[in-house]
Structures are given as structure tokens and as C-alpha cells.
Amino acid sequence: ALGISGAITQSISRNALASPDILGITAGASAAAVALIVLGGGGTFSGLLATLGLPLAALIGGVLTAIAIYSLAWRKGVDGFRFILVGIAVNAMLTAVIGWLLISADINDVSRAQVWLNGSLNGANWSTVWPVAVAVVIVGGATIVSTFTLGALRLGDDNARSLGVRLQHSQAVMLLAAVALAAVATAAAGPIAFVALAAPQIAVRLLRTPGPPIIASALLGGLLVVASDLIARTILPVELPVGIVTSALGGPFLLYLLVRSNRKASV
Length: 267
What we know:
Elements lengths: L1 H12 L6 H4 L1 H15 L4 H9 L1 H20 L6 H25 L2 H11 L8 H20 L1 H8 L2 H6 L4 H23 L5 H13 L6 H22 L6 H25 L1
Helix pairs in contact: 1-9, 1-11, 1-12, 1-13, 3-4, 3-5, 3-6, 3-7, 3-11, 5-6, 5-11, 8-11, 12-13, 13-14
């Protein structure tokens, strides 16, 4: 789910650095989920959300965040660089909101939320796997069918229009698909960082394709999560949440992408 989500956002923005965790979509889903955990029994509204569960709260948070980012980045179209800058700013604000929620919450709720925020597969079971599997099959399948549209969007706004693509409609639908996948994955295991960023770029380099391939990105995303979980459980002396391992591995990869982008810009 994370691999497909990253492939979509990178195709829409035409930038290798665009992923749900960098753009703030994951932070939006996390903020909504943490608010549900912290405020779960507090009032009528939060009590209603508590009965619907983390997946819906994360989806609502992710969708609202994506709408805000898209609206703020819009200026007669969506420029990829401006899209990322707005996403980074929104990500920072939502991170502050999460911090405020944790500081003002009960210690028991804080410990539960903190474990979830680190991204962990320890509590995964079939009840959390099924929503992700259904989302991958339905949304991922629809994305594969829309491969032509994604390819056209990677060529730029004018070229996409000349190929008959309804630009704003296609961007909005694809972004909604990316948000749904990222939110469902975040609700199931917490925000597992850098998988959505790294998987599509690794797939591009392995297959030498002009843009992130959907199926390969999905497979590599799953492989990265499983491999990181294996490292966290067996190789390291202390068992860690999988999100810590992916962050440790993804940080250097992000620096690599930044250096590579700077070199391309200077040539």
C-alpha cells in the first residue's frame, strides 16, 4: 500500500522526493489517529469516532490534509516543487499538533499513542490486515488500469492535456487514491517512515523505467517492511518497532536523492 501510494504522489508531482510521509499526508492521518487515541472517551464526537475505529479516523485526517495541501499549492495548476514545499510546511504543523496532543494527554494514552507512532507490526492481526488487503486490491487495481494517465501526468501539465487527460480531475482522483492507501496502511501499523519514498525509486532503478512502476513499487514496499521487521526482531540486540528501522535506513536514502537532485540541477 505504501509503495503504491508513493509511486502515485511521485508521478503526480514529478519529483522523486514526494511521498505521503514527506508531504504531510501520513502526518495528517497520524494526527487524527492520535487525537482518537487521546480523546477516545472524551465526548460525543470522539466517542462516535472511537466506535468507528482508527482506519476511518486516519482516512479522514489524510483526506483533509491532502485537500489542504492541494488547495494551498494550487496556482493555475500544481507545480511539483511548490506542492512539496507546502507539504513539508503542513507536515511540520501537524507534527506540532501531535506533540501538543501527547503533552496534554493522560500518561496511559500517551504510551499507547507513542507505541503506535513508532510504527510497529507487533499488534498486527487479520482484523488489521484485511482492510489493507482490500484497499490494495481495489485502489491498486484501479491505479494499474490508470497507468496511462499516470504516465501522461509525469510528462507535465501541457503534455497531459494534449493527450486528452482531464488534468485537475485526474490529479484529484489519483491523489485521493494515494491518500486512501497511505491512511489505511498508517491505521494498520502506524506511520512507517520512508517506505513510500524509497520503494518507487528503488523500483525505477532496478527496472530502468521512466517513472515509478506500480506493481514493482508495491512489491518492493512490502519487501522493505518485512525485511525491516525481520531486522528489528532478530538481528538487533533489542527488539525495536519496524518504523525505527525504516527511518534509520530511509534517512541516508533521502540524502542520496537530495544529492542526486542537486547534481542534476547543476548539470
